[in-house]
Amino acid sequence: MKKFVAAILSTATIAGVIASGTTAFATQTIDGREGDTSGDVQVNGIIGSFDNTTPGPNPEDLNQWINVTIPTTALFYTTEESSHKEIVSPTYTVTNNSAVGVIASVAGVDTPLNMSEVDLLNVNGIELFENGTPTVAETELFTLEGNQGTNVGSFAFTGEATPTDASEESNPSFKLVLSFAPDVEED
């Protein structure tokens, strides 16, 4: 029965490739001059809803592998010991729940507010702001292994500030935009 299902899936895949004109699949050449008269084709299937937390064949859209947990908020602040000139933060984590590796990148910053007192702000050494102005270009933050390996990465903010009045609180803010890509080879 399994051979019959594999044959049907193989036939359906070949028919789909021929109909769509797609040739993005890896190929092999059977060359009779080298004594080859046959070849094997590995056939994998996905039946039902794709589960990106379990190892298996790549889905057609590789982005379906992305399954990460990120914080909803983060905080940076100045320290009293530095006269409120040194910026530090707690450490935040990103967890890859997917069965495959995921590349996490800083894609940019959105909606900065009241950043004028921030002289320099970095995340894991990646410059985000200089003199209150966004400076970040898309940069890889870290690569996480699949959920069977080292699947947790961390980030923290560092920098410098020049408060207008260190005895009064000000509240700069922005949205850190992270992007994710599966770390897999296309079939």
Detailed description of the structure:
This protein is mostly beta strands and 187 residues long. The chain folds into two domains: 2-43, no CATH class; 65-182, Immunoglobulin-like (Sandwich), CATH 2.60.40. The protein is 10% helix and 33% strand. It has a six-stranded antiparallel β-sheet, with no helix packed on it. A three-stranded antiparallel β-sheet has the order 1-4-10, with no helix packed on it. A three-stranded antiparallel β-sheet has the order 9-5-12, with no helix packed on it. Strand 6 (118-123) and strand 7 form a beta hairpin. The longest helix is centred in the first third of the chain and has 19 residues, at 2-20. Mean pLDDT is 84; it is low at 1-23.
Note the main attributes of this structure:
2 domains, six-stranded antiparallel β-sheet, 187 residues, elongated, 10% helix, three-stranded antiparallel β-sheet, mainly beta, Immunoglobulin-like
Structural class: mainly beta
**What is the domain tally?**
2
The chain-level mean pLDDT equals: 84
Query: What portion of residues belong to β-strands?
Result: 25-35%
Low-pLDDT regions: 1-23
If you consult CATH, what is the topology of the largest domain? Immunoglobulin-like
Name the CATH architecture of the largest domain.
Answer: Sandwich
The main β sheet shows up as: 6 strands, antiparallel
Distance between the termini: 26 Å
Helix-residue proportion = 10-25%
The CATH first-level class of the largest domain comes to Mainly Beta
Number of strands: 12
Could you tell me the radius of gyration in angstroms? 25 Å
